[in-house]
Every structure is written in structure tokens, then in C-alpha cells.
């Protein structure tokens, strides 16, 4: 058993859904075990919204285009 397991908090962020993780890690069974360990007693917050930074980038590009 890991000495860290259930003794501290971990914050993990990703833009990939769990079903895409095996593509990244390459081994579906190991990825399933990893997700199982990470999500046990987890609070999962799924945010599906427009990116604030992306919107800022688009606005900046529009301003630069107008200036040129």
C-alpha cells in the first residue's frame, strides 16, 4: 500500500475525459487501476464551459487586426 494513499490531498486537472486516458498511458488495465485509485473517495468536478483565456485571445487578435 502506498504511504501517500488516503493520507493527503491531491489536486489533478486535465482536459481529457477518463475514456481517453488509455490512449495517453498506453495500457488500458494499468490506466483503469490508476483511475480507480485516483477516484476512490474523490470529489470530481467536471467543467464544460467556454475557456476564459481562449476568449481573451480571440479578443486580442481582433484588436490587433483592427490596428493593422
TrEMBL record:
Entry protein name: IstB-like ATP binding protein
Source organism phylogeny: Bacteria, Bacillati, Bacillota, Negativicutes, Selenomonadales
Residues annotated as domain IstB-like ATP-binding: 2-58
Organism: Sporolituus thermophilus DSM 23256
Molecular function terms, GO-annotated: ATP binding
Xref: Pfam families: IstB_IS21
Amino acid at each position: 500500500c502506498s504511504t501517500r494513499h488516503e493520507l493527503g490531498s491531491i489536486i489533478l486537472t486535465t482536459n481529457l475525459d477518463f475514456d481517453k486516458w488509455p490512449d495517453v498511458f498506453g495500457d488500458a488495465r494499468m490506466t483503469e487501476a490508476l483511475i480507480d485509485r485516483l477516484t476512490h473517495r474523490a470529489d470530481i468536478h467536471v467543467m464544460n464551459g467556454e475557456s476564459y483565456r481562449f476568449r481573451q485571445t480571440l479578443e486580442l487578435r481582433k484588436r490587433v487586426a483592427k490596428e493593422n
